[in-house]
Amino acid sequence: MADTWLIVGLGNPGPRYEATRHNIGQMVVDELASRRREPFRAHKANARVVETWLRPGAAKLVLAKPNSFMNVSGGPAAGLARFYGTDPDRIVVVHDELDIPYDTIKLKTGGGHGGHNGVRDIAKALGTPDFPRVRVGIGRPIGRQDPADWVLDPFSATERQTLPILVSDAADAVELLIDEGLVAAQQRFHAPRA
């Protein structure tokens, strides 16, 4: 099953966290499922999944939202990887990124976790940091607000005006990464927006 890609959208479970900055990874996976009109279902790896296709005849996609809290995302991600026989180079982790300005998308494979505990836990559980990441910029708080509180706040009214476009663009980035590779996705999404 070399053509099966696992897309893991990071976030925290429950309605309290649904609309928060920390959950943008799950919002992106929701968008990918919505495009395919597919509902999530429970999986024994402590996650909700959609099994679908990039498009007919193309790569199989497993869209996943761990049921665990962000800091312990590794267990569900590794469990799904084992279940579907997916190697780390085909596990795309979609997550929020403090060190990237809001409304910006960056892609990379491997490297450090940048203080992101969800990414750290997945790297530990998989035994490698070498998996592709779609990092969705949420920016840092202005003033003295603790970043740990900032990520758990809902998006501001101003941010919510462009949030659907950001989520859609990040979903496009996931699809392009799978379809044409990391470099093609980086060339498109790392360029300044017109």
Automatic annotation (TrEMBL):
Active site: H22 (proton acceptor)
Keyword terms of this UniProt record: Cytoplasm, Hydrolase, RNA-binding, tRNA-binding
EC numbers, comma separated: 3.1.1.29
UniProt-recorded Gene Ontology molecular function terms: peptidyl-tRNA hydrolase activity; tRNA binding
Binding positions for tRNA per the UniProt entry: Y17, F69, N71, N117
Annotated site location: Discriminates between blocked and unblocked aminoacyl-tRNA: N12
Cited function: Hydrolyzes ribosome-free peptidyl-tRNAs (with 1 or more amino acids incorporated), which drop off the ribosome during protein synthesis, or as a result of ribosome stalling. Catalyzes the release of premature peptidyl moieties from peptidyl-tRNA molecules trapped in stalled 50S ribosomal subunits, and thus maintains levels of free tRNAs and 50S ribosomes.
Subunit structure: Monomer.
Protein's name in the database: Peptidyl-tRNA hydrolase
Native organism: Microbacterium testaceum
